[in-house]
Each structure stands twice: as structure tokens, then as C-alpha cells.
Design a protein that fits this description.
The protein is an alpha/beta fold.
């Protein structure tokens, strides 16, 4: 880590009356009075100027494999410098990383660090990734939109250095923000938490989720990003078969049958500690629904040793990638094709480090 935090004026905001501002970074479009914070608590209005308090503040950092994100069809076996900050624009009750997502940055003094963060410049991030042989930078652990300005600066420098970037995101950024980082982002690993407005109201405290669907579609077709979708199947929230069917049908109809869908096991955390882990049978039912609706790559996550964490040829059924947890044990894709039947396997494989 290098240097220390410096307040930075935020991107994408409007000046309103009485020194209030309208933040346009995510779809909440917070109206922030002078001296107050936005919903995510990473943006502060001081005298009619909106500042990002998260720029360069790293709460979590590791060299992590693509499989942990999960990105199963985007250079398997590759490693990424994975960075997270503090705060979120959702505050889901069962958040797996709630300790950092729920943390509030309440310090404006540039010489005072909030607890458990260190400053890392964009130049330092890119240099660290290159020095460690990473394929690129991954913005993960908490919602990357809350430090958009930092991720944008990092992504620009990464592209210049020949490195790649990905977002592990809830997909709720504004179209303006997505279009700013779109030219520099290679992969968009998005949570599609459920497929009902009521469920999104319960989990993310938003009134609708059409903007998330629009962003996923735009990331794929406007900006050419590689897309993989994750649904954390949570008992009593999004595990009903109708909702899972509608969600998987949307992926097929709008994004295409080759987009990987990961149905992952909920593990009790934070405000949902009283719920049980998702039964494996529920995940297998979700996978069967997605496959029945036409998806060619449906994975089961957070169940170590399950066969559905592997990649199979959708035509002949041959085992192509064998995984154990986040490690690739066996890799048989040759020039993007199944070696047995020649079927083209959707994804990015040419630099796979297997």
C-alpha cells in the first residue's frame, strides 16, 4: 500500500438548491443535503461539492483465482488482484461480506484513515497486479460502484498496461456510470438476486429491478463484456420454482443460452443467521430448471465436491474442466472447442492458465 487518502471530487452529480446535490453514480439517485452522506455512506456533500470518500481506500486485497468470483468461462485458472473497499448501495440482510459492506466511512480528514483500510493508488494497483503475474484487476468483496472513480482510473491504467479488469457487482449502477467504465471493463460478473420486485425490496431495499436487467444487457451488447450471472438461492426469498424459471428464461431470451448461470448455496450470515443453509436438492432443482429452459452452462456453487461445479460439453457431455473448490484440476478445452465432438464452448479461453 502506498501514500494516504486524498479527498476527490466525485463524478456524475448535479448541483441543486441550497448547496444540495444529486448523485448520479447509481440508480438510487440520492439527493444529498450539504453536510450529509449518500445512502452508501461513501459520498459526502461539503459545501455543494460531492466527494468520494472511498477513493483508494482498500479494505480487502488478495491474489485470487477467477473461479472464486465465480468466472468459470473467462480464462480458467487465471489469477487476479482482487480489491474491495467499504460500503454498499444495497445492504442485503444476508450479505456474506457484511463487515465491510455495512461499514461507514465517516472521516473526511485526508490524514486520518478509517479502521482497517489502507491507501493504494491506481498506479500501485496496476503495478502490484503485473508484479504478481495477474491477468488483471478484479473489483469485488463489496459493490465496486461505490468507488467508481477509483475503479475507472485503475481500469484505464490497466488497459494501457495490457491487463484486464472485471466487476463483481450487483448491477445497480447508473447507465451513465456503466458507460464511463464500459470501454475499460472486460467481464461483468453480476448478481441477479431474484426475479421479483418484492424480493428485491426485501433484500436490496429497492422498488424494482428492471435497471439491473438493462445494465446486464447493456454490458453485454453495448460494451461486449463477458457475462456470468450468480443467484444465491436463499430459503424463503428466491427459491420458489416460478421465480427461478422466469429468471433463467430471461437469461436465455435476452442474453443467450451460452451465458453461465451459477446457483449458489446460501450460508447463514448477519441478519439471516436464523435461516438454514440452502438444501442441495433446491440447488439441483434450480439447475434442472435452468437446463430445461435452454441454458447450456448451469453451475452449483458453495457445495464442495458437487459434480455441477465442473464444465461439461453441452453437446456430447464430456468432462471439459474439472474443479475442486476454486482449483482447476483438469482442463481439456482445445482452441475453444470440445476435443471429443468439436462443439464450440462459449467463453474466453485463449490465455487460460491451466
Amino acid at each position: 500500500m502506498d501514500g494516504y487518502f486524498k479527498p476527490k471530487e466525485a463524478l456524475f452529480y448535479e448541483h441543486l438548491e441550497k448547496n444540495s446535490v444529486l448523485c448520479r453514480v447509481c440508480r438510487r439517485q440520492c439527493r444529498i443535503p450539504d453536510g450529509e452522506y449518500g445512502y452508501c455512506h461513501t459520498r459526502y456533500n461539503k459545501g455543494g461539492i460531492l466527494y468520494t470518500l472511498a477513493y483508494g481506500r482498500v479494505s480487502s486485497s488478495s491474489i485470487a483465482p477467477a473461479e472464486i468470483k465465480p468466472l468459470f468461462h473467462f480464462f480458467p485458472g487465471s489469477t487476479w488482484l482482487s480489491l474491495g473497499t467499504l460500503g454498499c448501495n444495497f445492504f442485503c440482510p444476508g450479505c456474506q461480506n457484511w463487515e465491510i459492506a455495512y461499514a461507514r466511512i465517516s472521516v473526511f480528514d485526508e490524514k486520518i484513515q478509517p479502521p482497517n483500510t489502507s491507501y493504494l493508488s491506481p498506479e500501485g494497483a496496476v503495478a502490484t497486479a503485473g508484479r504478481n503475474g495477474c491477468l488483471g484487476l478484479s473489483f469485488t468483496y463489496n459493490e465496486p460502484t461505490v468507488w467508481l472513480e477509483y475503479t475507472l482510473d485503475c481500469a484505464r491504467l490497466a488497459k494501457e498496461a495490457g491487463l484486464m479488469t472485471n466487476y463483481v457487482t450487483n448491477g445497480y449502477m447508473s447507465e451513465e456510470a456503466l458507460d464511463a467504465i464500459g470501454p475499460f471493463l472486460n467481464a461483468f460478473r453480476t448478481d441477479l438476486k431474484c426475479f421479483s420486485s418484492n424480493c428485491y425490496k426485501q433484500t436490496a431495499h429497492i422498488t424494482g429491478f428492471s435497471g439491473i436487467l438493462e445494465n446486464i444487457e447493456r454490458a453485454k451488447f453495448r460494451w461486449g463484456m463477458h457475462i456470468e450471472i450468480v443467484t444465491n438461492v436463499t430459503p424463503g426469498f428466491n427459491d420458489d420454482e416460478n421465480q427461478l424459471s422466469e429468471l433463467s428464461e430471461w437469461i436465455v431470451d435476452v442474453l443467450g443460452r451460452d451465458v453461465p448461470w451459477h446457483v449458489t448455496r446460501f450460508v447463514p450470515r448477519h441478519m439471516l443467521n436464523h435461516l438454514p443453509c440452502t438444501p442441495v436438492q433446491s440447488l439441483e432443482t434450480a439447475r434442472a430448471i435452468g437446463t430445461h429452459n435452454g441454458l447450456r452452462y448451469v453451475y452449483i456453487g458453495n457445495v464442495p465436491g458437487h459434480a455441477a461445479q465442473n464444465t461439461f460439453c453441452p453437446e456430447c457431455g464430456s468432462l471439459l474442466i474439472e474443479r475442486e473448490n476454486y482449483t482447476v484440476l483438469r482442463y481439456r478445452i482445445e482452441k475453444g472447442k470440445c476435443p471429443e465432438c468439436g462443439c464450440t464452448i462459449a467463453g474466453r479461453w485463449e490465455n487460460s492458465q491451466c
